[in-house]
Write a structure and sequence with these properties.
By secondary structure, this protein is an all-beta fold. 2% of the residues lie in helices and 46% in strands. Strands 11, 14, 16, 18, 19, 22, 23, 25 and 27 form a nine-stranded mixed beta sheet that branches.
Amino acid sequence: MKHTSSFRNALTLAMCQIGLLLCPTLHAAVTFTVTPAIVSNTYNGPITLLVSGLTNTETVTVQKFLDVNTNGVVDASDWLVQQFSLTDGQAGMVIGGITNFNVPGDTDATAGQITARLNFRNGDFMQNIAGKYAFKLSSPGGHFSPITNLLSVTNVPYAQKFTGNVVSNSTSATLPNAVVLLFPPPRAGKNGPGGSPLAGVVANNSGGYSIPAPPGTYMPVAFRSNYLANFAAPPVLTLNSGQTITTNLTILKATTSISGKLTDANNASIGLPGVLLPAQGNGLLGVSFTDTNGNFTVGVQSGVWGIKADSTSLLVHGYAVLQNSTTASAGQTGVNLGLPKATALFYGSVKDSLGIALPGIDMYANDNNNYLYETDGYADANGNYVAAVVGGLGVNDPWWISVSSDTGPTNYMFSQPSFDQNGGTNINSGTAVQANFTALLATNYLTGNVQANGVNIVGVGVYAYATINGASFNLYTDTDANGNYSFTLGNGSWSVGVNCGGGSDSLDTLLGNGNFQCPSNQNVSINNNNATANFNVQLCNGIQIDTTSLPGAQVGTYYDVYLAASSCNGNVNWSLNDPQNFPPNLSFAPNGEIYGNPNTSGTYNFSVHADDGNGHTANQGLLLNISGGPLQILTGFLPNGTNNVFYSQSFQATGGTAPYNWSIPSFSAPLPPNLTLAANGVLSGTPIITGTTYFDVVLTDAAANRVELDGLALTIVNPPLPPVVITTGSLPNGNVGAAYNAQLGATGGQTPYTWSLALGSANPPPGLSINPNGLISGTPTASGLFNFKVQAMDANFAMTNKVVGITINPAPVLSQPALLAGRFSMQITGGSNQNYTLEVSTDLAGWSPLFVTNNPTANSFILVDPTTPMGQQRFYRILIGP
């Protein structure tokens, strides 16, 4: 007898169950899913890994590869961009009772099952490059065969894009499967990119790439294993709306390499896998990733190189990174880098003033005195962040945390925790410190210049601070090569000053201690306006008036400003040179205070005099503009426009100083096609598409006051349709017991129509009903005239109704035939104005029509059979209709 394999399996299982065989424990097959399988590079949610069919407390390894050749299989050319272990029933890193959700762990309580959630936008740009990724699940103990699942990342399909080829050494030879990244442009006075990559893509197998992006200025750079990107002279290109820019990106072939291992600083046997390790030197940058044991080999050229682990790659491991790079020479081997595992946490939230979460914000932490370590933590979809740090460094090396200046959004400013203002906090090992951050819109500019005796001071620190709604905000920057500085800030009362002592960018360092008079801080009020605060550093040989411009005033609003001057000798006494030109209802005090409630609008030019009491004086002309009230936009709603019909609407405003200037800001979505906003506030044009468009409007007055209206909506609709009209005039009669069908009709509106009985109407004849398609059908069961109201609703929910009537005739009755003058006669009783057909038969098998009758007024009449044969039986019947 021949057994099939299924029979043998069943037999073996039965013998195991009754104890005839000693059998191993049977487990369910291990399954592995990645959800979602396709995401955009702007996706803010988690990537969920689900592993089922494990033994209780089993450990698995997850590796994530960038599938650079897009063949869907993990092979030698693919980049290991992430690796971590998961243990059933074990959460990720927990310190001080707070979970570091950057370190993956099991989040469910089901034995034999692991659910891990990875924050997709965790700051590691290698996880957001458009292309294919392979998640490979394996068992360190060989419990199951490796399982691979794919994740696809797409770029947002913007209408404009960069395209081209990646080429080798400025030749025409293309390089397949290189990674192309779009960086922000270099910041003023700095080399290299102006922040983290904004988008990326893997070039195809022919070396071609295409990256869609919003309009803006970018620095595209290509990377590839054993090649070097050139940051010394990358293209900086401005992408306009709807434009395609084609540019080839060249990378240089590496001629040698540097190799080593990335390990735990306290245990060199623990390698850190899947970590990006760039090498930088002479404006060139090579990239490599550590393998599953932490080993790395990075392609370079001759010279000395700085190697430093990428902090975002270490988020899943819970390690801090060294602030300083490790130097290595080309060709060097055995370069071992030891990193400390985090022992403490910062945690908290990043939200705006309305409590709305701001995902993707980079929180940067570092020890503030010895500058040993740094780390990052990125806000998740709920605005929560965790940053892993090294605790126990002592009171002389506190930690400091803030929103990263390299990646923070430029239209916001962020509060700082109180301990940052005191140099940081001493965070102990095993503890977690909460630090919440508030973001305020910062769309106004504070600019200025720092000089000494007419000479620009380059590289001096300028600060601005304010307390707004109980939160502290501190801004700091250095002057550029022309002595200028700029802040983007929000509404509030700001104190602005120059760093006189402390650090390499202080006046003490730049001018020499005791050689200058530290300029007084200037108070600047920002209320939807830009401002200027210039500083003239007084060298110790006279007096210098620092206030060169005044903030605008408004009628009916209290005004209070102090003039500032610098002198190395005594106190400054102020006076007016031309009091007749000073604004009425305002006061001028000897300490330089201008205050009061202005009651007259206008522009006032006057001159002030400063005397330090030691023979030094100075004069300064000032201009004060007093507007007629706060500048306000009155238009908050726009009427709908009609497609292909000319549209015109004027924006209205009040206050400020005329004339007004209206505009659409560069950061706003565009107006509907074919519409424009003129400087005089007239929005006009002939729209060519339908739908609702949201955009921002900015109003600026003659005094440079500025207000903004956000999210204004304009809806363009199609021309109105004709009204819905029921065209059915009358309905045909029916008969009791006979099937009835009549179709209702309508015109206008938007088809299809939906028919029903109008609310409050009488019912149609018993036995009849109204179908949604307008067909009245059924078999009447009662006679009479029935009036009722029908309703038609079109696809746009427009409705109308009409009263209709149906006459239902009784069922016709045929009397018994009788002889009349030798002929059979009979009486028909039915309904008036109804066709009836009299039929005759001799055998009830075949029927022949005799008469068709219709009386418009009578409902009863007598019919005579003219063919009556004597002595022959006859049968008669009456039919409704001809």
